[in-house]
């Protein structure tokens, strides 16, 4: 992107949760930071997100409907209630109509939605779209991606090599742009004598296995995060609390950073194809070492960094042994300095955002006339 270029960007967020602290999960934290950073850089950024989000203007056309659950225990981070898909289609139709209005035109769409509709805006409207792949392949998004002609001004980014390979197997190729962590907010901590687990409390994140590892090692552990699956929490997590295991609830970033930085080791226990695992980088940024299950992109994110161990997924004994070893090292200030320095060098948010800013700038420079010419050429060739 040329010096001084200012973009008109529409950021499309996932609609399941509002973008605000305490963040519902790593995906929401990533998009929240993206909007904040782009605005600080002087770009005109409109946000399309769930009502109640920070940075969201008063225009109702950009307010996305969150799932409406009739009972708390029906709430899910993966399923949708009846009728939600139709409400989302209507909402995206409103956004799409805005993009055809010259007064509301944007240079580029920065798409983080988990739906296929925004992907198709590049095909149907000729609007440059950059879609970041934050999850394993989703059928709706795969179908939309496969329908794009080569002329569509669209780019896919993936948060890890692991995620890029997963989507490539479905015929969707992406450049790899890993997530980043703000080192000015995730500060080095002094460590402490308890372990920590933080993130979304859902079965695929398996915090109950982290608690079992701590109990096996005779260590105290604190669990922080939003309960994304109440049934799972009541069945698997709640019975393990007490006797050294404490649930402290969802925390805003400053309080969460303080908790993680005052811990001797962080446990990360995905039992699914974790695309990236932002908590890995966040913990390391505080100087707190990490032990993680070998699932999804975890090994890739941690590769070569000090203060890390990766063990076989679901192996609670191996998790406990590795955590005991790293917790002992964590008492050294020099060790924690080294862990933070390496994490900052690899996972700096400023570095990641500068790279994405360049991608958005390049995408925005795709002339509509060239897109039209390419469409004509494809039609003739067909």
UniProtKB/TrEMBL annotation:
The keyword Hydrolase does not apply. InterPro entries: Glyco_trans_4-like_N (IPR028098). Residues 66-85 are annotated as: Disordered. Keywords: Glycosyltransferase, Transferase. Residues 25-183 form the Glycosyltransferase subfamily 4-like N-terminal domain. This is Glycosyltransferase. It comes from Microbacterium commune.
